[in-house]
Amino acid sequence: MTGKIILYDTTLRDGAQGEGISFSVEDKLKIAQRLDQLGFDYIEGGWPGSNPKDNEFFQRAKEMKWQHAKLSAFGSTRRVGVAASQDRNLQAILAAEVSVAAIVGKAWDFHVTNALQTTLEENLAMVRDSIAFLCAQGLEVIFDAEHFFDGYKKNPVYALEVLQCAAKAGAAVVVLCDTNGGTLPWEVDVATRAAVDAVNVQVGIHVHNDSSLAVANTLVAVNAGAQHIQGTINGYGERCGNADLCSVIPNLQLKASRECLTPESLRQLTRLSKFVSEVANQIPNDRQPFVGRSVFSHKGGLHVSALMRHPETYEHIPPESVGNRRRVLISELSGASNIAYKAQEYNIALEEDSSALRSVVDVIKDLEYQGYHFEGAEASFEIMLRKSLGLYTPFFHLEGLRVIIEKQDRDEEPLAEATVKVKIGGRTSHQVAEGNGPVNALDNALRKALEEAYPRLKDIRLADYKVRVLNERRGTSAKVRVLIESTDGVQTWGTVGVSTNLIEASWRALVDSIEYGLLRTGVEKL
User: Fold this and answer.
1) CA atoms of 333 and 379, how far apart (whole Å)
2) Which pTM does this prediction carry?
3) Would you say the CATH fold of 371-391+460-526 matches that of 6-279?
4) Quick one: CA torsion of 160, 163, 168, 173, rounded to 10 degrees?
């Protein structure tokens, strides 16, 4: 098959049905605009009449300028025994004043007789009447054949008859839905080919991920003749979610040579994924194919050595083609190639066969043995690397610190106070600060001591703080690892500290965090 793939995004409707996801009207408008800018063909905005939020979305969407996408309103066929012109759902679609309507109707005889509790003939009439009514009002109609694959397996003649009925009534696209997400790829292939042969309009695919096959089934359907694909960004959707367009699109475009987006828009895919995650208030999946943070990460020394010569040895596509990037991780599994790669990334000259490089490798392995973990603390690794090579001068020197925890009543929270004395250039700064815990007090005191000399420190803040006990069986004398994530609002970086003393481990991670933040801003050391 050839020809452009038609992208129909249903993140704002089907994706919003996912557990833990709730978009505001502003959220939906932001996502819709981003999808439009990237060149998506259709954006399903919601189900008008079902809730006030969707009604407001469609009203406000009318005031916006759309560059490429058509806005679609979702609804169902007319109700049993009700004329299409009198059906509230269909009237709500007209009130939304969109140019496209997506109408869902039953394609499985079992659902017709048991869920709708009507006859197979009446169901066909509901499909025919609803589509004809909307087409007569000037709308482009997309028919979603609900439970098509389940229906085809049980009664293929009737499932195909539903599609033919929709096409004859004026539907521009008939979409084959794996509503329960239980169909296998070879079943999708057979049924899709039958559907393509049965109708003379465009065939689409809409699948759910209950069997972890949504992306595979979408690709199989396209190979069988479907040209219109429905899915959501990041695979959001009810139960196990929908087909993830962040996987479907690059698979089709980069591997099957089926145009979905322009190459420029495809390079925005990773940013789009993270943007939708942020708006949906969901933690990005680091292992999400194509767009996840970890999917082009390499840890084994032999892999990295090969990558430095030929990236395709361990990468199935160039990360940049989807806006992602390669990451080389540092751990006790790292070889000289990993260190050399990272040094190159930091613009540090380090020969691969040098004694300096071998020395750094030994240091890394020893620190990892002690409990350090640099995969999530690349800032600490860069500082350590520069120190090992004699390329680093600290921004300040500690002359002393003290932390006091005071608890005066058994029912009150204890008070934390930290005193920090540091030398910056030729002068000493001695500061005291309180906090809601010893680490917070230390952070506050250190900032007070440094901010006069380094005002840019005000832009750096702690974003996350994690503690892990490394050898639990030693009880309160166990060694701990502290990971700190910091940000300046533009970039985020991680640092690590390890010690049998929680305050000391926190101090090491905290110092690295501040020093790296100052280092990346280009502040001159005093």
Assistant:
1) 19
2) 0.74
3) no
4) -140
